[in-house]
Amino acid sequence: MLMDRLEMQDDSKRSNRPKYSKFTQQELPACKPLLTPAIVISAFLLVGILFVPIGLASLSASQEIVELVDRYDTSCVTVADKVGFIQNTKTDKSCTRTLTIPKHMKSPIQIYYQIGDFYQNHRRYVKSRSDKQLRYKDAAHLTKDCEPEVYSAGGAPIVPCGLVAWSLFNDTYTISVNKKAIVVNKKDIAWQSDKKKKFGSDVYPSNFQNGNLIGGARLNESIPLSEQEDLIVWMRTAALPTFRKLYGRIETDIMENDELTVVIQNNYNTYSFGGSKALVLSTTSWIGGKNNFIGFAYLIVGGFCLFLALVFVVLYMIKPRTLGDPSFLSWNRGTMDYPS
């Protein structure tokens, strides 16, 4: 008997039962709202009353934005062998496009280049870069993630290395309005956080585009990476295959029916992979660029909530029920105490 008691005590000491606490026993204070008809209807009404005006304001702001999109990759190369044309360094690739402004465009006017069917989010493409090399002067040798653009033809490390930098967009735009040249401001087109924290002010390009295969644009080796804003904009890879990146800004207004002439140096090769290129001019508002989706999303959600509130009000008026009535419980239906 004594041995049995000792064994029972040992078993109780070795028990896996957790130490009591309100957390382990799920007894912490919690909000347990009672969803009465009044609370449910009020909640739907509140969401609807808030969302519908926001949606209308967003749609109104989006409709005020003037946006001009001109695809030029097909019209600027008329020969059958487009890939051969774009890869030939001796051919003149300048192309002139004339556009008519449909509506008064207030400054600043954003200039974007838009590329289609370019998968910057591909895993191998995104990984082909060295963030430490972009940031630190003494990290030029850290190129293990940059395959296949690692070393120049002479065996020296490329700065910046990798496919992302190698494929830098190199089309250029010269713009005039009514045959008067317009200055395109290319300052502050990159994020300040990227310029200060991701690209070093003492890191300079070296051996760039000196490999066996030339990619996109070249970089000025006398300017640090933190000031090469076209590169910084390009290095922030896009999530979708069709994307826009900021090229510059026009700081003057352009009036309705003005004639816009753009001389394009059509250098960038999107023909090898069946991609597209377009020039985009757009004004902005408090919601950014033109985007009707946000407004429609708010309107649909707000309208649906107002509709549900109306339905619940009608149901409550036609067929009200006492709150907490036990006769509606499934196990009480049709019993002697609660006949149906």
From TrEMBL:
Is NADP found in the keyword set? no
Which keywords does UniProt give here? Answer: Membrane, Transmembrane, Transmembrane helix
Ranges of Basic and acidic residues compositional bias?
1-14
Give the region (Disordered) as residue ranges.
1-21
Q: Which residues cross the membrane?
A: 34-56, 296-318
Protein family (similarity comment):
Belongs to the CDC50/LEM3 family.
Name of the protein = ALA-interacting subunit
Tell me the classification of the organism that encodes this protein. Eukaryota, Viridiplantae, Streptophyta, Embryophyta, Tracheophyta
